[in-house]
Specification:
Strand 7, helix 6 (163-176) and strand 8 form a beta-alpha-beta unit. This protein folds into 2 domains: 3-217, P-loop containing nucleotide triphosphate hydrolases (Rossmann fold, 3-Layer(aba) Sandwich); 221-272. The strands form 3 sheets. The protein has a 6-stranded mixed β-sheet, sandwiched between helices. By secondary structure, the protein is α/β, with parallel strands linked by helices. It is 33% helix and 27% strand. The structure holds adenosine-5'-triphosphate. Residues 3-229 form the ABC transporter domain. GO terms for molecular function: ATP binding.
Length: 289
Amino acid sequence: MIIETSNLTKKYSNKVTALNNVSLSIDTGIFGLLGRNGSGKTTLMRILTTLIEPTGGTASILGMDITPANKTQIKRSIGYLPQEFGFYKEFTVSEIMEYICIMRDFDKKTIGETLEKVNLYNERKKKYKELSGGMKRRVGLAQAILGNPPVLIVDEPTVGVDPEERIKIRKLLNEYAEKNTVLFSTHIIEDIEYICDKLAILDNGKLLYSGSIEDLLKSVQGKIYEARFNTKDELHKFEESHTVISFKRDDTQVRASVICENDAEPSSIPYKPTLEEVYVYLTTIKGGK
Ligand SMILES: Nc1ncnc2c1ncn2[C@@H]1O[C@H](COP(=O)(O)OP(=O)(O)OP(=O)(O)O)[C@@H](O)[C@H]1O
């Protein structure tokens, strides 16, 4: 395994338990980390990148235990795009890359090919302040993949970018993951659906699921069903005694996906839930919200 954690725990000094006994095994490919705001995704990534230390449990990357003694070596094997990436706004794209090369002791010759990988080669003379939000995210990705690290950790790279940019970023991560490991944190379920091989769901610091999307969808078979109503008022009445995950209207009816509280729901209609509905189901039932 490329990344492993065992009972990883982080309690901050304000007593918030941001990670609670999280055990994960991550191999080559794209591994998605899904969870709502505050579920612990950034905390996990910051531990893996050696920026903060856990208060319990262990973690390793490429067989190296994440300890202060291994920090330098681990940092050389990881590329990291934090959630809030910014840079001196007067620097050009090339200057940013050169600066990172100097700071991290990388060969400047790799800058051109790195910028090509993120489709920014033609923008290399533009100042950071002149770039669109999506381009800025791609500069962030470029600095993370400089030196071709075997592990790339990206924290919500698609937040706040338009659909076209989002697709570009996904494509790029996909290509990078052909030979490397990408840990990709997001709360955008479509990101996971489109490119991740496996995923982990975090909620309130706890691991609710880790494995393939296929197995996740199978694991909830029979636990979500569809109910149909003629009007929205009927649906609202039903909601008083049932947990409705989502609903949509067609020309004649309102169709709702509902959590099956008892095995024998009289009105149940076989239904294949979407990943989004499964996510809501898990965070409602297992997350206890
Ligand atoms: N430095 C800190 N000191 C105290 N509490 C913190 C600190 N950093 C994060 N937390 C808390 O830990 C919990 C997990 O936060 P974290 O940022 O890891 O979640 P997240 O899933 O990345 O959320 P988001 O999607 O909003 O970035 C939250 O309750 C947060 O308020």
